[in-house]
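Please review the protein record below. Let me know how this chain folds according to its tokens.
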Amino acid sequence: MKCVSFPFAHKAHSLSSSHYSTNPLIQNLPRDTISRMQWGLLGLLEVSSLCLLFASPTLAQITPDSTLGNENSQVTPNQTIRGAVADLIEGGAIRDSNLFHSFLEFNVGNGQRVYFANPDGITNILTRVTGSTLSQILGTLGVNGSANLFLLNPNGINFGTNARLDVAGSFLASTADSAIFDNGFNFSATDPNAPPLLTINIPTGLQYGSNPGSVNVTGATLGIDTGQTMALLGGEVNLNGATLQVPGGRVELGGLSTPGTVTLNGATSVSFPDGVQAADVSVTNGSLVDVTSVNGGNIAINGANFFMSASELQAGLTSGAGIADAVAGNITINALGNSNLSDRSLIANDLLTGAIGNGGNIQLTTSALTITGGSRVQTVTNGNGASGNIDINANGAIDISGFTEDGLFSGILTRSAVDTSGPGGNITINNDLGSLNLANRGFIGTVTNSSSNGGAIALNLNNLVLDTGGQIVTATTNLGNAGDITINATESVTISGESRNFVPNPLLDLETFDLNALEFITEPNPNVAESGPGGIPYVSIERTPEQIINGTTVLGTAENQIDYFSFSITNGNSRAIFDIDNGFTGGDGNIDSKIFLFNQGTGQLLEVNDDSQAADGAGGSIASFGSSTLDSLIDTTITEPGVYLLGVGAFPSTASNNELIEGASPQVGETYTLQVSLQNLGTEGVSLPEDPLNPANFNPNVEARSGLFSESTGTGHGGTLRINTHKLTLNNGGRISTDTFNAGAGGNITLNVGSLLEVNGNTLVSSITTTLGNA
């Protein structure tokens, strides 16, 4: 039996017992007469509502209104749809390929299944709620066909834990007042009327009122068919422990908080107006928005403030059949206010292993951006295609800092992850009015572990601050070349400090170390002279423990051909950094400082370096505003406990390493400065991520110090590093490096500083090689 509610059924309740003593028309009637009148009116006015009530108690939550006249919606319970009992909504007003429904209230109870009938030729089903209560979707809402479903309720729409969608087409839930059509018709929930008997195409927009309700999804998993669009448009939009899945399709989240019109581009995408106040969007508590598939999908978020906590946005290509030239969809976020990613949140547009095609991009436009607690924005390729680019546009502060207890750092990353991967994507940040602050291991990095090149990093800022281990990194561990780093900072660049208890990721294949163990022997060792190269006498320099600290400067004289410093390593896998400030002079000006490291027990020469200039293109030249002196430097890992010798000398620029070891006669004049970096970076209480070989746990940071790094540990070349700024400051261990640790050549470093280049403490600008590459 079909039951349709009477348009004024709710007014029957006006004849309640409370009216008996106040209504003069009925005061003198016997009570049983009044009772019969009430029941008679109820019989006339509420027969359909009673029918619904007794037929299925849950159907009282779906109440059609009378605004469609003879075309009112009809609800039929106890139908079998797709193999299970459901309530079927029929009737409605058909105009061309559109079907209109109108309800006083619309709710789906827990465990209830409600489906809209899909007559032939109907591609869009539009449903409005004209009453004053929000819609609670606690069960299954579906379409018994392939039409798109639009649900409008200005009061709000909530999806509960057990809510499900069974929709083959696209799905839009909105708290806008009305849907707008190209012929001027407004299908309004606040000023309801029937659609005219005219040609009506698909809706072209949504008209918002002054106080739209919110769209909330709490604990539910909502999915629709592959390639379709799911749009949740408030007021505010809040995902709390929710999952939205549209493989290869599109997810739109956003809304307005004031009157305005949102444009609908068919049933596929949404455009938000300029100059209208948007509403907040939050994705929290383990929520997931996933559009990954073999063809990729898109995610678009438009709001005032955007909040993510312990949640993920996932786009990109999965393994399987695809098209080689295909490009995955994009993740686009437009937040007029602030964007905040916290508690290991992830925005990822990745190519998974076996994916065919190229990755999509991530575009984030916001006022201010904060990334903390191990949160990431990344594009990573594990397939043959290229990973996408990351573009961030802001006009306020960008703060990236912090890490998780299991060692995952906060940052922005593109990566070519495996041997066969395509090129890594570029990272571009435009923030001309604001600052970029990287602290406490926060990073921006592009890394290639493949034969393809890594991406470039371009930063256009007002100020850049790297502190307590904040890093900007391009690196290669394979045949591919590291990307370039270009920094244009209108005001200043400041690099300072280091992160305590730093543990690098083994996937980067850089030197790992525990630096608790480095100490100097404070007593002369008579055996040293016998083991010194070329019979050169040992020069003992005693030191006190107070001098054995990070950044210690020890002055020595160059009266002898070589100064030796003897020290012991009590634990293996320790790091030592020795830096020479060349004060040597010679008659022809061609005197280089030499620094080298011996294992005293074996007599093996472990490391050697000098301050000779490298030719452009051969490995890495350093150019700065004003004059710059290249120093000798050893930055190495000592793997075995024992006694070691550090040698410092002055030699002709034409001397070979053999002449160095044999003690060729230098022209010695002035003194030099030896800076000893004894970093205390013990690992107690700190660990690598639980699964460090998992690409999701990859950290690109190369060491503890804050800095700019474009380095190679493979046969690929390091990238070029350029800084253009008014003021450059390096303090307390800050570093700029294009070093190489294998056969690859180091990149060039160019510093264009307008007025002030300030270098203090144990800082370093280096372009060196420790093996076969050109430095």
